[in-house]
Amino acid sequence: MASVGTLSLFFPVFVPASGVAAAYLGHRATKVDWRAKARHFLTGPGRLSRILLVFFLVTNWKSLPFAWTIRIFYAFIYHFTRRRPTLPPRALFHYSITSTRNSLLDSDYNLHKSNSTYFADLDVSRSHLVTHLLGPAMPRIGDNAKNRLVLDKDGFAVRGGFGIGLGAVFCSFRKEIGLLQGYETWSRILSWDRKWLYIVTHFVVKGKVKPTSWDGRARGPVRPKNVKVEGGGVAKEDEFGKWVIATAVSKYVFKLGRFTVHPAIVIKANGLLPARPDGWMGGESGVGTPEELGDIDEVGEWDWRRVEYERRKGMEYAEHFAALDGANGLFDGGEDGALGHFALG
Predict the structure, then answer these.
(1) What integer pLDDT is reported at residue 1 of this predicted model?
(2) pLDDT value of position 14
(3) Which H or E element spans position 215?
(4) Are 105 and 62 spatial neighbours (Cβ–Cβ below 8 Å)?
(5) What whole-number percentage of the chain has pLDDT above 70?
(6) In angstroms, rounded to a whole number, what is the distance separating the alpha carbons of residues 107 and 3?
(7) Domains, the chain, with CATH or none
(8) Whole-prediction pTM value?
């Protein structure tokens, strides 16, 4: 499991440090004659090289040193310092959308977005999704000794810092992203089991698809249900796939110290799980008693049956992804030999 950091230091360390740094920069900025600085920058000696440097930095900013860290902590600070609206259970499977653009430094020798750089965008997209959707209850889970949301098998409150770990990522590439081309990442919860929260992310051509509504305040244009943005005709669900550039599936694990927190506890603590007769944990699978769901009205009320139906539908894909964990056993340490050991790896 690859760790993506712990949130136990976020509130006591990073938020105060960011506030102090912003206050200091603001204080210093008030003492600078910015008009004179701008005039010298644009008209003074060496202006062409400075302007070209600024253009390079602006168009490649997300590939610069510490840019990844800034993008991740911007997501944390933005969502943890803004009060999100109360969300209904149906929002549990809604998309979080971010927009960005392919830069020169993110491109390969074909001037297409390098496959390796998709994973940095996935980090950012998942951070926005998880902190917006599940962030409100994270401080309460982190203070578990007081709130007793997570109990061990003996009924004692689990202690330790709250953290989120990234277990694996799969990415399927369908189309290329050209130099300076804009694109969007659409991330949502796919499913969960007794350990992992599965997230699916689609890389989508920018501006080609709009959601039918927004949770809370409006964040951009919308389209009528079952109608495409372009052409005005009724669209089948699979027709939106032509705008998909790549699709990735990731899995997260929640931790309190070394104790694994059931994803249902985190989701329920954020008010996104409706009441279920036998609860959302238990049974052989650890995700509740496997009741017969029967016929589900996909446009009806989002009761526990509808949420469980969506979870099971997502698990049809997630369980195949999870099965790839067994591929670790294929490594035999070069029992039959190796091709060679090469430099500049």
Answers:
(1) 41
(2) 58
(3) none
(4) no
(5) 88
(6) 27
(7) 55-214+240-325 (3.10.129.10)
(8) 0.86
Q: Which residues of 265-283 are buried (b: 16+ CB within 10 A; e: fewer)?
A: bbbbbbebbbebeeebbee
CA dist 124 and 130 (Å) reads: 10
Q: Which two tokens stand for residue 162?
A: 């709250």
For residues 32 and 91, the answer to whether their CB atoms sit within 8 Å is no
- DSSP secondary-structure letter at 275? -
At residue 305, what is the residue type?
Answer: R
Residues 6+ apart with CB under 8 A from 10: 76, 80
Looking at the predicted structure, is the pLDDT value of residue 21 above 50? yes
Question: Could you give phi then psi for residue 247, rounded to 5 degrees?
Answer: -135, 135
The predicted-structure confidence for 223-241, as pLDDT tens digits, reads as follows: 887 655 455 455 555 578 8
Provide the token pair at 158.
């689990």
- What tokens does 302 get? 């989002």
- What is each CA distance from 84 to 136, 231, 312, in whole angstroms? 8, 34, 27
CA dihedral of 327, 328, 330, 333, whole degrees rounded to 10: 160
| Cβ neighbours, 10 Å, residue 13 | 10
Distance, in Å, from the CA atom of 340 to the CA atom of 345, rounded to the nearest integer, reads 12
* Structure confidence at residue 179 (pLDDT): 94
pLDDT-based confidence at residue 41 (cuts at 50, 70, 90):
confident
What H or E segment, with its residue span, contains residue 188? strand 182-192
Is 273's pLDDT higher than 80?
yes
**C-alpha–C-alpha distance, residues 222 and 219, integer Å:** 9
Can you tell me whether residue 26 is helix, strand or coil?
helix
